[in-house]
Amino acid sequence: MDILTLNEYLNRIVYGFPMKLFFLLVGAYLVIFQIRWFSAPLRMLRVSFSETLGAIRERTYGFGGQITPFQAAMVALSATVGTGHLLGMLAAVLLGGPGAVFWMWLGYFFGTGTKFAEATLAVHFRRRFADGSVSGGPMYYLYRGLPRLRFLAYFFAFFAAVAAFGIGNLSQAGAVGGALAPLGAPPALVGLFLALLVGVVLGGGIVRVARFAQVVVPLKLLLFLVAVVPLLVLYGAQIPEALALVFRAAFSPEAALGGAAGYSLFAALNAGLGRGIFANEAGLGSAPIAHAQAQVDHPVRQGFWGVTEMFVSFLVTSLTALTFLASGLWREGGSAAEAASALFQAHPLGGPILAVTVAVFALGTMVSWGFYGEEAAAFLFGEGIRWPYRLTFAVLAFVGPLGGLEAFLAISDTLNGLMAIPNILGLILLGPVVGRLVYGFFRGEPWIPPR
Amino acid sequence: MVKREGMLGEPSDYLGQPQGYLEGNLAEFPFVALVGALMSTGRTGRLLVRTPYLEGEVFLRGGQVVHARVWSGEKGLEGEEALDLLSGLKRAPYRFEPEVLPPHTTLLGGLAVPARLSEAQALWQGLSLPSDWGYVLRLPTKGGQVELGPEALRVLAQVEGKRITEVLLAPGVLRLARILHTLLGMGALEAVPLVEVPPASLLVLPIYGPGSGVAYVDEALYAEWARAIRHAFRLRLKRLEALMEVRPRPNIPGRLGLLEEDLKRLRLRRGDKVEVVPEV
After folding, report:
1. How many CB pairs (< 8 A) connect A and B?
2. Tens of pLDDT, residues B52-108
3. Does B210 contact A443 at a Cβ distance shorter than 8 Å?
4. What is the ipTM of this complex?
5. Cβ pair A64:B251 closer than 8 A
6. CB–CB of B251 and A55 under 8 A?
7. Which terminus of chain B has a smaller tally of CB atoms within 10 A, N or C?
């Protein structure tokens, strides 16, 4: 068995249906038994909004640390809201039919528990250094929270540090290059621009990454709205029907769409859960690296920002899916890129708006992933690795738009999926810690960091 | 600067001070004992006592106390009344300047002075007034019933909002001190430090939990206030005119933690800017 065959085998496991079901069950366990979302759902919802969107006006006020909770959420959102929300969403509908959207929503719902737990644990177990900087994420909560299973922390850090080069860099840089190529941008020039940008932003550490994310996330959302609102208006009359179709096709796609459409319940489940889990990265363990940077008085407060991150991601994927369904283009099949091209033909700004949106989405993801990878590498090899890692990341950002390195990309994709295994195990074992923190938070108790 | 606290009769040959110069604090060398020591060594000069709210001076000539004066602003006492008041000071820096002569005499010296001093000392020892006479007197915040004599009532009617120093700086020092002691002991009066801490502008942060009437501030800010006030204090939310119990809480710099019920009651929400000031 050569390495690529082994990689293919592993890839099928980490992105396979049983794994998705596992993600869903862990999310449900956290939501129902640890966070207890349902014990006082309305109160939880109110607090969730108050702690996040309600705190937007104090976004510039930190709690004395390097970056504010808002900025940490922006870094995480910058990575999460990527091309998977556009092209990935279209691909999921093409593969699973309209019913996939329903299963995606289910994945999102239970994913909120996973993301909440990740962000909470990331802050709780983060490490504070003498210069006031902090580092956290799954490698730290696995290392400090599960002292007998520290090898999980090393596995996670290794997978994250290498996956960041591929899925977080090469593939994103390739997406930027691919999106801008029809507009006449030479790949080498795009690569040079990306390398410089990534080098400068990552070189400034978390403060500069956060400032960048604070600009790029609103820009992403603005571009997304510019791209999708005219289409929503155009297909507005079909939206209620599209919504009804989502529910009808969720459980019996054959009956709702006709057997000839070729969509099965399994296809809908598989594609939908895939989007509902991997689009928002809940369970992968990437976002908590950003959330750990937030200076808050209690980890649970940052947990709520994790929920908001999911909410924003949910809105973007759902609007994309509904627009696509309302257009009726999903019935024509084909690849995601072809479907996107057909969808945006009806847009007043045409293909360029799609190209720019995809490019900005990919760009934001790239910078945040650079930070994730750097943190993971620093956990493994110490502070001295930061600059070599940044330089390597910048070089690969240059290579990305030029193409090639497919084998490395395939391996990094698998490693990206493998990140979830130690992280999910950690979430199960550390679930009671999350439960205790949530209980203490709602009793008004101050947070006592672990020693 | 090296201090020579409470050492008498040793020549002072450093820092350019004249011989016999002496300084220290009454907390280490009580006033009556200090004057007694100066008298027994036959000193001539001025003993200056200074607190933030009160100044006093005692002049000795050849070991005899010939003049004493205490004052605060324009109010002042001289002679035996001044000695009575100074005898009650528990803590204050003092300085003895040798060879300074009195402007005039108000005391005859002799044995009358030590007798008066020991009488005053005995009385002060039986009283429990706050050691800091800068404290302000006020009626207690919690109501209650006490029975008072006409003299105590007259004093009570006149002292609210005044510092202890201001009240005592009047003829009949020892009588006033005794009345104050009684009023404080009965709970008819409270002595609290006068807090002059600038208001802090804080952002409201919800604290989710049961209870009400408690405000949380960052540990560092709380410690800063506690150092400045040195007394139990509460927090006044300016403009809202709400007075709340205050507790320290870690990691909330720039924030005012309020419980949900208080947020509702005060019509505040997350991120609102509130001016607060500690109040005794």
Report:
1. 53
2. 889 999 999 999 999 999 999 888 999 999 999 999 998 999 999 998 888 988 988
3. yes
4. 0.85
5. yes
6. no
7. N
Buried residues in A77-99 as b, exposed as e (16+ CB within 10 A): bbbbbbbbbbbbbbbbbbbbbbb
CB proximity B185 to A under 8 Å: no
Query: Is B253 in CB contact (< 8 Å) with chain A?
Result: yes
In angstroms, the CA A92 to CA A246 distance is 13
CA distance A439 to chain B (A): 10
Question: Is position B55 within any domain?
Answer: yes
CB atoms within 10 A of CB B16: 7
B205: chain A residues, CB-CB within 8 Å: 297
CA atoms within 13 A on the CB side of B96: 31
> Measured between CA atoms, how close is B241 to chain A, in angstroms?
24
B245 in contact with chain A, both atoms CB, cutoff 8 A:
no
- Cβ atoms B68, B106 nearer than 8 A: yes
For residue B207, the chain A residue with the least C-alpha distance is A444
Find the domain containing B163 and state its range: 136-192
The domain limits of chain A are: 3-48+68-441
User: Which CATH number describes the domain made up of A3-48+68-441?
Assistant: 1.20.1740
* Minimum Cα–Cα distance from A47: chain B residue: B208
Asked whether the beta carbons of residue B209 and residue A296 sit closer than 8 angstroms, the reply is no
Give the mutation candidate from B217, B251, B273 for the A interface (greatest A CB count, under 10 A): B251
In a domain, B7, yes or no: no
- Give the span between the Cα atoms of B180 and A195, in whole angstroms: 79
Q: How distant is the Cα of A287 from the closest Cα of chain B, in angstroms? A: 23
pLDDT in tens, A119-170: 999 999 999 998 888 999 999 999 999 999 999 999 999 999 999 999 999 9
Q: Are residues B92 and B150 in the same domain?
A: no
Q: Do B249 and A297 touch (CB under 8 A)?
A: yes
Question: In this structure, which amino acid lies at residue A351?
Answer: G
- The band of B156, judged by pLDDT with boundaries at 50, 70 and 90, is confident
Q: Is B205 on the interface with A (CB under 8 A)?
A: yes
Taking contacts as CB-CB distances below 8 angstroms, the residues of chain A near B272 are none
Domain end point (choices B192, B222, B239):
B192
Interchain contact, A442 vs B208, CB within 8 Å: yes
